[in-house]
Structures are given as structure tokens and as C-alpha cells.
Amino acid sequence: AVALTADGNSRYVYLDPYKGGQIAVSESARNIVASGGLPLAVTDCLNFGNINDPEVFYELQESSKGISDACKLLNTPVISGNVSLNNANPSGSIYPTPILGMVGLIEKTAQILTQKFNAVGDMIYLIGETGDDYSGSVIQKLQNERIFGTINFDSQAEKENQNFVFQANKKELLETAHDLSEGGLLIGLLQKAFGTKIGFDVEVNLTDAQLFSETQSRFVVTVHKEQQAKFEAFVHEMNLNTRVIAIGKTTGGGTSSIKTLESTTELNQIELE
């Protein structure tokens, strides 16, 4: 099977063009891996404002470097693309918006991973460490009506976490997978639950705010209880014990709960949908 995705986040590129370019490629690859695929190649659409403006030219230059470096690291060459310049509105140039389309290969259709929860009683694991990463995030834009701050990104952790998910799936240890991006962990969990009759009972060693942190390089996966021992042995084999944490299990009834360091929240999925 072939896996396809298109991704980009102009807020990150606006705050840090180089890291934003890296993240655009990495999120695309994360989506391919979360579907069970091996990322192969990308096509890009580079949308920017008036490059006669030195700041806009800098955004184009640095984000292109970030895209290039991420593609080299993840072995996903740019095989085609286009550039759209002088994009503006009455208030000035648009946010710098490189969009990455990516294609991947799923060698066996049996290895296709779905995003949604598909069984009650499965173990839920968070892959990747969570920090206080709110710069350019959805929650920052909603609360402050602007974006600001610095972007954190660890390209090596990104590569290692993606490889772990890909290899774990090849070993048939995973049931579902979803990469975490806009909105953070809580939104990712809800996206896995929406449209199903399956909820989650989760406890995390995080603050309430960190539920919405957009730390990169993270996944949420589910594992059948019978595969838990094999999965955790593979975590140890890959030396990722500090990055792969069991956070709960799936539940029936369409309701969910999440406990943080500060509070416990009950969620009615139907009302949220």
C-alpha cells in the first residue's frame, strides 16, 4: 500500500524558519510512520511573501535549509515542488508557509495502522518526552491572540522515535498509532476516541498546561494486553525506557478521564464531538 500526507505549520516557521522547516518534514514523516509506512520522498510547495523584504527572504532561505537538512536525516529526498512568492494581504506578507507532501510505502497491508482506538482494554503508551512547548501552539494563539517565543526541536530524537514506532509495528506489536501535533496530548487522545464508542483512562506525570504542549517527536500508540510484555521488552532493547511510558488503557462507554499532577477531568466524548 501507499501512504500519503501533506503537512505544514506556518506558525512554527514564522517564529523559527530553520526549525519550522525541519518540523514540516518531520511531521509529514511522523504521519506516514503512524499509518504503518516507511517515508520515501517529498514534494514541497513553498509559499512566502515579498522576498524583496529582507526578513521574508531570510524566512525562505532558512526554512529551505531546515527542509533540506531534515530530508537528509530522514532519507526522504525532495523529488518535485513549486514556489509561490509575493503572497500578501492588506496587513502585509503571509506567514511563511512551506507545505510538504510526502509518500511512503507499507510493505504489507496487514501492517496498516489506524488512528482510532479499536478495542477496549488496550494499553496506551506515550512515545516521546513532553516539555513546556507552547510557542506557536494552538493554545498560545487562542489565549494571547498572537504567537511568540522560541521553538524547541531535537532532530535526533525525532528520527529515533519514528524508527521505534516503525520497527515496533513491523514486529506486529502495535494496534493503533497517532502522531501528536496541533493541540498536544489531550487533543491527540480525543482524536483517537472521536467516532468510536471507546474512551480512555489516562494518568500522566504532567501539569494541566502540558496536556496542550506541542512538543515535537511524539506518538500515542495502543498495544493489546497480550503483547504488552513483548512491547516493553522491545522498548528496553531499543534503550527508550525514559521515552516510552504507559499512561493508561482504553475503556468502554464513550467517556474518558485524564489525571494530571494537578487535577482529574472527566470527558464526555459525544458532547465534545
What is the number of E strands? 13
Question: What percent of residues adopt helix (DSSP H or I)?
Answer: 25-40%
Low confidence ranges: none
Distance between the termini: 31 Å
The strand order across the widest sheet is 8-10-7-11-9-12-13
Global geometry: globular
SSE sequence, one letter per element: EHHEHEEEEEHHEHEEHEEEH
The gyration radius over C-alpha positions equals 19 Å
Pairing-aware structural class of the strands and helices?
alpha+beta
Mean pLDDT: 96
Counting H and I runs of at least 4 residues, what is the number of helices?
Answer: 8
Work out the strand percent: 25-35%
- Largest sheet, if any? 7 strands, mixed
List the helices and strands and how they pair.
Elements: E1 2-7, H1 10-15, H2 17-34, E2 38-47, H3 54-74, E3 78-84, E4 88-89, E5 92-93, E6 97-105, E7 123-127, H4 138-144, H5 155-170, E8 176-179, H6 184-193, E9 198-203, E10 219-223, H7 228-237, E11 244-252, E12 255-259, E13 264-268, H8 269-272
Parallel strand pairs: 2-3, 9-12
Antiparallel strand pairs: 1-6, 2-6, 4-5, 7-10, 7-11, 8-10, 9-11, 12-13
Helix pairs in contact: 2-3, 2-5
